[in-house]
Predict the structure.
Amino acid sequence: MQATITLLRGQHEEIARAIGDLVALFDKSYAEAAPLLGVVRTRIAQVITKHLKTEDDLLLTPLREKRLMASIPGCEAIVIETRELRLTYSRHIGIWTARAIEERWSEYVVATRQLNQRLTALCDQKMQSFYPVVLRSILFDPVPTSRMTA
């Protein structure tokens, strides 16, 4: 359990560092930030994608297989928020093309800060109250025979 928590925490820290790299660009003019912007945005997408796959493989798939999703308070809300945030992020990338960012840099900064705050809050919530409960459920659930055959 601790190894999984450590892995997930490490991925959250990697996401936070990638976001920090983007936020550092916000203090610059667009002309100064532009050469690094694509690389930083791509890095954020990569670390988030990697993390979501890890979450699915280590947490959500076992929860579904053991039919435990409904037994964990707040689980559905976390899954929904994660899905909504993923969709919002995809829309954000679609809206904020290189051209749109160049033309409306200050608006991009505001919109991206808001999205990053939402992402950070979700990561914090997962670390503090979701992952420990999910892992205990996965690792210690005896999987009653009635659920196995249902």
Notes: The two ends are 27 Å apart (CA to CA).
